[in-house]
Give the backbone structure.
Amino acid sequence: MIIQRNAIANYVGQLYTTLIVIIITPLYLKYLGSEAYGLVGFFALMQAWMALLDMGLSPTLGRQVALARGVEKGFIFFKRLLKSFELIFLGVALFIALGVYFSAGFISQSWIVGELIGSEIIIYCIVLMGIITSFRWFAGLYRSGINGLEDQVWLNGASIVIVSLRFIGALVLLAFFTQDVRHFFLYQLFVGIFEVILFAWRFYTILPMVDKEPTLILFDWDAVKSVAPFALGIAYTAGIWVLVTQTDKLILSSTLSLAEFGYFSLVALVAGGINALAVPISLAIMPRMTSLVAENKNSEMVDIYRQASQLVTLVSFTVAMFLGLYAEIIIYAWTNDEEAEAWGAQVLIWFALGNGILSVSAFQYYLQNVFGQLRLHVIGSTISAVIQVPIIYWAAVNSGAIGAGIAWFCFRSTWFLLWTPIVHRKFIPGFHVDWLFKDILPIIGVITILGWLLSQIFPLSIDTHRGLLFLEMGVLGLFLLLVSAPSAPIIRKLLLQSFTKKET
């Protein structure tokens, strides 16, 4: 019941965030212009790369708080660990802000290709980006702790408030007060400060009391050292993950003009929404799967794993296929910008399909995480990066964004087929073939066939009024999801149970 409630809350929160981003982002482009929006895209890229400095501490804290709930007196150790992590995060947050401050001049002159915006404005905005990133990054520590305590209903409610302030508030600022990109980033700074305060307050409010509380300022080296192997494994693989998923964006940020990078940021945002759809389910299942492994209830854990992977495949591939089939229409209806539509349609197709594969591939990482054994993930991530990064680099430099997208899709598909069975064989022997051919591939096959048929029967045109286009796309997307749903065994089981109850 808790998993279902949290999954629903996570999806409500994620759906709200996704809708706000979809609605607001093209308006940012309208009020700021393509170059200034390119700075917003660069800000998102900076945050992704700064995640390297997390060093695996946020996910480690979330896992430790979940473990503490299943271990007697577990919160005594956890609170010592928490104080130590907070001191580490404070130091790294200062490092981020100062590091960006001193490198802002180099970035504005040697990396970002601006034509209309002056270097002084770019430097000012980059400095603000560093400060904002440090606050948002610190908030991630408390967010992870709240998630580990399974207080995800409140977490999603608070996230809705933060997202509303971040996007709707910024839109009000741009529409009625100022369209200066510097003021946009100043506003984001105030929202970032509020976010840290809010999540810290909630986390400490729901954290269970212990008989012996640690002192206010305490660094417990023994506590940190005990979780260091796991944290370092997370940190290393997170670094590889950023390298694998953000290298194309980093390369293109220097090879494209700032205006073109603004268009690419729009495409990356839409394609990234596919992975965001998988986040609510992963957030809901990870604490429970970890607790079940700690209690030696592995069969129950595997049931959750199978059901969740089916749901993620169904949702992610429905969206990915729809984005691929209607890429031109979607970008035009979204931005009302023919230049953005002409530039980004072919790029979106490949990144969307690649991200659909990536959403399902992530489950082998979830499995290793709940067992607390990341050796295979470290090995796999390293091999993946060594092969993929040069391929993406070559494709991006020689063929631009389209080349990077094609390379991304081809590699993600190949890696999923080759690496996932190795992980399954290690942790759930004899599981992979059944999972792949009964749980995953039938869903992908049905969505592919039905999606293609849908695009042939109901072609859409950019000559249609944008409001009607949105309505048509919403109806067609929902229809594709509904008719594809029975391909997932968990959906068929639920439908059968529902019919059986009605008959009795």
